[in-house]
Amino acid sequence: MNHNALETSSIVTSETFDTWETSSSTSTAWGPGALSGRAIKSLGEASLRGLEKIAIRWRFAKIKSDLPSPGSRDRHHGDTTHVPQIPNEKLEKIMDDLLELSRLDYYDSKVRHKALRFIMMQIGSRETGQLTGCITKWPREEIMIFLSEMMPCMPLLWHDSSSSNSDSNRSGDDGETNFNLKERLELLAVYRSSQSPRETHDAIPFIVFISQLAETKADARRAVVDAGFLRFLATVHKHCSIPVRVDLEGTLNRGKDRDKGSGSDMHMNNDSGAASVDRDVVEAARDALSVFLDTDSGDRSTDIDVVLRECKALQMELVWPRSGEAVELLPLSTLSCKLAQLTPMRRGVFWRDLWQTTSASAATARRTYQPGSPAIMSPRLSSSDPAKLVVDRLCEIAVVLSIKTYHRPKCSKDLFDICFDLLVFCDMNTEDRDIADLSLLYLLQCVALGGEPAIALRDVLVLSSYNVNLDFFYRIIYPLLRMKTELLPTAQKFCQEVQYHYGPSKNPINHFIDFAMDVATRNQTCARAILDADIKSLLSAMGRPAPHVLMLFHELGSEREEVRSTVFFCSAFFV
């Protein structure tokens, strides 16, 4: 035997080891340990992977035993007081582990899906205090990626799964980014099953969770927007708004006249219980959006800009309309969005025709009423009657006037529409004056607020007829003149509003006179109406008219003889 040849073939150099380690061997010689070395390394990696899977399965089993299951909540009718409570430290560790296991690109799809099932269970049951705290430990990009995993699941609350069969086996572009439809439906099923029976809508717990997360810090708010939360709110509003639509001819189309095949139209819902449910979820959506509009904190100004840009990109007529070309965030209904497309004249025709339809229906009901039959429901209170839209609009107006965020120049178009509608409502002929009286009180609130609401009302009055101006100013001047003898509700409400906004030292009558004179300076029709509404008696009661009032009457003195007499009357106070 040639011992030298054997020794040579048995030598394994360092270069040979570099072959499987770095793929840069300088030799093609194979020693007897080369293949076994590769096998040992591969076996070690497989063992590590196996141990990791065992550890993950063990951790999921432990989490499952610690967290209360949806079934335990169902057995207690949603009451968690009978469910074992987990210490905060332990719960925080569980949430940290679940969030870690849900991370994209770190774990396979099955692991992430299982982790998200537990997370969706916490969200559905509104037990998200520790979860929110753990999420905020992450940077903004990680939060956005995490939310992007859940956000596509929620619109399925309104989608018919049969219409998406073609997507049932489709994953994301890279097979990992998104779950397929089946997996998303499973997440949604866990989310729904964990909710309390007291929940009025499936979407509300998720909206509340995102709102709480957005309130924690600026990075979380930005991540919420980047993850598509505003798109989700658009879907909410599309499916849960007032179930009517208005075409550009200003006519009301009931649900029975709609094309049933149209996926963009909402179904008419005459069930007052269902209407209440829709109202609850829309209110939750509006509360969520208000998080981004709260400008009390200095770091939120940029968030508002981001929200406005995102809304504009979405062309978000579905939710909170625009003013001019900029998307604004007034909490207005779909009906108000549609009406915003009409000219003032056609807008007024719509409301008057709507009310005439209601009045005719009520008159028919009174004519056919028989003694002993159930009492006739007031048109204002019928959930299926068009007049309810007037009441809904008044409720909407009350919200806008109560939030100063909306009293800014960019919202002037929507404030103009509000004042215009209120003047129309004041002129409606009704047996019950509640709607007209309430509308007048909201107009007084616009005057008392000053600023953009008062400017909007002034612009509406300038474009209105002599009769509209006369009626409006007389309804206010007469109660103000009687304040010393009788405090009528109109005067009382106006005085309270002025002093609430400007303090007790502000004279409400002087405030109203300033507004009236601002209107009068805009055109002579308004000035004549104000004079005919007996403004001079109000000036006399005050005793000292402002100098600009005297100047105004001098400028208009050539118009009417009555104006000349008023000028002499006012001049007496400056002699």
From TrEMBL:
Residues 252-277 are annotated as: Disordered. This is Uncharacterized protein. It comes from Dendrothele bispora (strain CBS 962.96).
